[in-house]
Structures are given as C-alpha cells and as structure tokens.
Design brief:
This protein is of the alpha/beta class. The chain is built from 8 helices and 7 strands; from the N terminus they run βαβαβαβαβααβααβ. The chain has a single domain, classed as NAD(P)-binding Rossmann-like Domain (Rossmann fold, 3-Layer(aba) Sandwich), CATH 3.40.50.720. β4, α4 and β5 form a beta-alpha-beta unit. α1 runs parallel beside α2, α1 packs across α8 and α4 runs parallel beside α6. The longest helix is centred in the middle third of the chain and has 28 residues.
C-alpha cells in the first residue's frame, strides 16, 4: 500500500501510540490521534506531525462511548478528505481480583479493548472502500496470543485481547474483497509502566529470551510492515522478544 499522501487514525496518542503516529507522519501520512485524559501528550504528537509537513487532527474521545468511536473516525476522514489506515491502540489494562470483577469492571475493559476496535473499524470501512482499500491494525497482547492466561487478576483484559484476535480474523475475511487488510500486533515487554520497580524490570528481562525490553521501535516497524504489505491479512504478529516461548 502506498503510504505517502494517505491519512491515518491512531487511537491512543501516548507512549507507543505516539511513536506510531510520528512514524506515520514521517512516512508521509496525515494523522489523527485520540486521547481521553492525556491532552498535552496528544497535542505534542500533533505538533510533531505538523513539523513533519503533514496535517494533524487531535480528538478527545471516550472510546467506551460508541458515539465517540464513530465521531473520531468520521471526523478524521472529514478533516483529511480520506482515510486509509486505522490503528486501534487504546486499551484499559488494570489488575483487579476476580472478587472485584463486577459488571462495571468487565465493561471497562471490554468496551475499550474490544468493542471500540470493532466500532472504529466499522466506521472506517466506508471511507476505505471509497479509496479502493485500506489497512486496519488492531492491538492484542502477547499473553492472549500465547493461547492461555498466564497471570491472575486480568480476566477481562485477557478475554478482551483474545477477542481482538478473533475480531481481526473475522474482519479480515469480511473485508478481503474490498482490499482492506486487517491484522493485529501482540506486543510483549516493550515499555514498562511508569510505576515499575527495578526489581520488576529485571524479572521481565530475565523471563524474556532476548533479555531486554524492546522499546517502541519494534512495534513501530511491525505496524509499518502491516500497512505496507499487500498479501498479509488475518494475522497476529507477536512482538515480544520471544517471551511467549519461555
């Protein structure tokens, strides 16, 4: 797929999402980024997009709200006059014991991690069809891609991320005739959360065959590959330093 001159939406404009947005702009795409509470970070990303010579569009969106999902995608398409790429990165990741996992906690993860990916994709499809094709890149998780839960306390998150893989495969089949390729990335130890201790960082490194955290770049490269390819669809690529095999 030709990247330069196209337009993309990245849900979640911070951390890895920010790196992806900047890479898309550097490759010649106009980029829309969404945020929920991290406005300053999203605006910093937008400034970098503009500095790359591309147009930026920043939207505050609560992706647990279906109306916000549709407004984000349709607003970006209207701002840019087209939409070629959707990267579903927004996620809710929270440790919660089973005894506290009520309906509210369940939906907090499901609505953002799984339902929003579907709703944003569904809104993007008509715009991509107008262009003769497009790319959708969803984000799962290395644990879900390993086929079994490995950590207790993340039940809704695990189920949602496993659902993202199924969603990716089903959408890929549904949209193949439209030349809209749908794939997923299952990242592993890429960026530690800010509250991670040195001991926790070391434990992750020891459990990862490559012996280190990956950083944003491997994920960015995977996203770019899945946008550029014209013969890979319905696939989930693990970017985890081999974490799933140990």
């Amino acid at each position: 797929m030709q990247i330069a001159g196209g337009a993309a939406v990245v849900t979640g404009g911070r951390r890895i999402g920010a790196a992806v947005a900047r890479a898309l702009a550097a490759a010649g795409m106009d980029v829309a980024v969404s945020y929920n509470s991290s406005r300053s970070e999203a605006e910093a990303v937008a400034a970098d997009v503009v500095a790359s010579g591309r147009r930026a569009h920043v939207v505050r969106a609560d992706l647990s709200n279906p109306d916000d999902c549709r407004a984000l995608v349709n607003g970006a398409a209207a701002a840019f006059g087209r939409l070629d790429v959707l990267v579903n990165m927004a996620s809710v990741y929270r440790l919660i014991p089973l005894e506290q996992t009520d309906e509210r906690a369940w939906h907090a993860a499901m609505d953002v991690d799984l339902r929003a990916s579907f709703l944003c994709a569904r809104a993007a499809v008509p715009h991509m069809r107008q262009n003769g094709g497009g790319r959708i890149v969803n984000f799962s998780d290395w644990v879900a891609a390993s086929g079994r839960p490995r950590y207790s306390g993340y039940l809704p998150y695990y189920v949602a991320k496993a659902g993202v893989i199924a969603l990716t495969e089903a959408l890929a089949l549904e949209l193949a005739a439209d030349q809209i390729l749908v794939n997923a990335i299952a990242p592993g130890p890429v960026l530690p959360p800010p509250e991670t201790t040195d001991e926790e960082r070391g434990a992750v490194e020891a459990a990862t065959p490559l012996g280190r955290w990956g950083g944003p770049e491997p994920v960015v490269r995977a996203v770019m590959f899945l946008i550029e390819t014209d013969f890979v669809t319905g696939e989930t690529i693990r970017v985890d330093g081999g974490r799933h095999i140990k």
